[in-house]
Design brief:
alpha+beta; Ubiquitin-like (UB roll); Creatine Kinase, Chain A, domain 2; 12 helices; 18% strand; ATP-binding; Glutamine synthetase family protein; Gln_synth_cat_dom; ligase; nucleotide-binding
């Protein structure tokens, strides 16, 4: 659905100081792209949409167009029409000049949805679940680091200067309240910006490294909205961090000997009346919950290139780091890939713990929902729940390198039926080109070892 011009008119009347409207979308890599409209020109965006090349959704992480599937240079780089999503026009609290932003979705020239938009990919998967009477309730958790804006001599990141001490932060106090208090000003402004932008954040916690935090989002009964919230949260965190003199990174593994950044996806499924189909009154959940986990296990390997979309992401996976190293599941157990959290029956859900924080939220959630649906319709038994430490050894049947993950995606049997074979082919081509470009660089480490 396209937002009407009356939404813009009302917003501008309520915010007479706003000078610009940023029209934004999230590409294949989750990078924010778009155009900035002066206030007086924003009406045209709502009336006619924004002409922008389809290839903007097929850029690699450096912004290069690899001409994936002949889309870009080969086809003359045609435009589609990006249109505003209703209800997403909000102020940008951290902007230097009074500004607003609106989220866009991509359409063909005839107004039909474009399959190249990751948001549209997720819409298609969610519709398939709803058509079968399975209504997702979901939330995405994101971990991130606040780092010093000044890099090390080798280009690597530095831990931030703690605001309360003025010294380089060295504290690793998971759930530490002193760390929350030390960074209270930036965390407060993140909360404020989320409230302004309709992003339902509600708790923050310190994580396993200096300057590392997690911000939680409330569960919603709309998977696309949940992915919108996660994507917008990343934009909020980066914008607010910069305002406070930090840089924020969602890179999966920015520090070799410290915890990585994860994206944890919480999912339950309800019936038409809102009853949780994963709840049967037990702590382990219903048979349907176990089938959903079985499907997630069955699709984990072919989805790794979506869950961990770059070379750095595979550094995050190692034994005994509270990071999944196999297709494991368990109840109230953080060492597994698919965790059933403790809690009251109506909240019974699966926490998918595989993704890095730099995964595209739309594509990651689409793959998780696809796995759950596949498991339910095929009634896949996940096997017995893991107890104790399930994170001691890497599962040899899961690809733990970027190249092997892309190979498994190329040969995927389940996910193409959900996310679309053509889309996944273009994703594979784009990321393979990115991998080859990455591999072409001679690193300082190679000079140190081999010169």
């Amino acid at each position: 659905m396209k937002a009407g011009v009356e939404e813009l008119t009302s917003f501008l009347a309520d915010h007479p100081d706003v000078e610009y409207v940023d029209a934004i979308l999230f590409d294949l890599c989750g990078i924010v792209r778009g155009k900035r409209y002066p206030r007086q020109d924003a009406k045209g965006l709502y009336e006619n949409g924004m002409q922008i090349p389809f290839s903007v959704f097929l850029l690699d992480v450096t912004g290069d167009c690899p001409d994936a599937g002949g889309r870009g240079f080969s086809d003359g780089d045609p435009d589609g029409i990006a249109v505003p999503v209703p209800g997403t026009l909000k102020r940008v609290p951290w902007a230097r000049v009074p500004s607003a932003q609106v989220l866009l979705t991509m359409t063909e020239q005839d107004g039909s949805a474009s399959f190249l938009d990751p948001r549209v990919v997720l819409q298609g998967v969610e519709k398939r679940l709803r058509d079968d009477g399975l209504h997702p309730v979901t939330a995405l958790e994101l971990e991130f680091y606040l780092i010093d804006r000044e890099r090390m001599s080798d280009g690597g990141p530095q831990f931030p200067i703690a605001p309360d001490t003025g010294q380089r932060d060295k504290n690793t106090q998971v759930y530490g309240m002193w760390e929350i208090e030390s960074y209270a000003a930036v965390l407060r402004d993140i909360e404020y910006a989320c409230n302004v932008q309709g992003v339902p954040c509600y708790t923050a916690s310190s994580e396993y490294a200096p300057g590392q935090f997690e911000v939680n989002l409330r569960h919603v009964s709309d998977g696309v909205a949940a992915a919108d919230h996660a994507s917008l949260l990343k934009r909020v965190v980066m914008g607010v961090a910069e305002k406070h003199g930090f840089e924020a990174t969602f890179m999966s593994k920015p520090f070799t000997h410290m915890a990585g950044n994860g994206l944890h996806i919480h999912l339950s499924l309800c019936d038409e009346q809102g009853n949780n189909l994963f709840d049967d009154g037990s702590d382990t959940g219903s048979e349907m919950l176990r089938w959903a986990i079985g499907g997630m296990q069955a699709t984990m390997a072919e989805g790794m290139a979506l869950f961990s979309p770059n070379a750095n992401g595979y550094r995050r996976f190692a034994p005994n780091l509270y990071v999944p190293v196999g297709r494991t599941w368990g109840v109230n157990n953080r060492s597994v890939a698919f965790r059933v959290p403790a809690g009251a029956g109506p909240t019974r859900r699966v926490e998918h713990r595989v993704c890095g924080a730099d995964a595209n939220p739309y594509l990651a959630l689409a793959a998780v929902m696809a796995g759950a649906h596949h498991g339910i319709t095929s009634r896949i038994d996940p096997g017995p729940a893991n107890t104790g430490n399930a994170g001691e050894h890497l599962d040899p049947d899961v690809p733990w390198t970027w190249r092997s993950a892309l190979a498994r995606l190329e040969g995927a049997e389940v996910l193409p039926g959900y996310l679309g074979a053509e889309y996944l082919g273009l994703y594979h081509a784009t990321k393979t080109a990115e991998l080859e470009k990455f591999q072409s660089v001679i690193t300082p480490h190679e000079f140190a070892w081999y010169l």
